[in-house]
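Hello,

Our lab assistant flagged a job as stuck in the queue for most of the afternoon. It eventually completed. Since we weren't sure the result was trustworthy after the delay, we are filing this so someone can double-check. Below is the sequence as submitted and the structure that was eventually returned. Let us know if re-running is recommended.
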Amino acid sequence: MSNTSIMNSIIEGAVAKVRLFEPNSLIRERADLFIKIHIVPMEQLVRVERGALVPTAYIIDLSLIGPSVMRIEDYLKMREDGSLTLGRKLGKARNKEQLVVNYVELIIKALRFFNGYFICRHVLDHIVWAYDEALNNGATIRLFKNEFKDDREVDKALNELSKHIIASITDFYNGLRTWILNNELKRPSYTQYFIIHEILRRLLPNENLVVIEANEDYFYLGLLRDVPLTSTIIKLG
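-- returned structure --
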């Protein structure tokens, strides 16, 4: 099966999950459109110009996580002590650390497969779930099914976790940027440290994870591959 066929199969699987779990009836009715309009070619939001990421549309902010990001490892080491703090559902899970590790890995793999695209967080969990079923025999989602009583609860847990992952990325990068540009230090929380450390472990040396805040509560994630960046501390406006 070609990559295009697999991608179409993943999208169909994500559409099916929107129809199952989405509480908004209007979105359920147009699930296919809802999924497709939230998978965006990268050039619609950013382009690379002279080694820097430049917006091609209005965006609020941009975060960048990767092995080449300036002083990212130094900032990571400044973390606070503590424990992994997640939402109500994940916080009660017996193996929450392992769930986070496996879900971060699955997100990175799915974004790598959707090379050249940004995926909006509003559909990310359904895309990632469908990817796991299509290419991983559902192994990662099975771990969540072992923790939560039914698929609807799994869907809620994934939604909660992806929110925490994105919040950790954006808060961590904002702290890194403020430390480098303004010499003001806000130490990363342990949860930020744990999630960013796992992301860095999963990324290849030629990859950067980009998170774009395009509008209030609209975050897009994508992997930038084989693009050397000379400017990795980005402040818009």
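-- support follow-up --
The delay was a queue issue, not a problem with the job. The result is valid. Residues 168 and 192 are 5 Å apart (CA to CA). The chain is about 55% helix and 15% strand.
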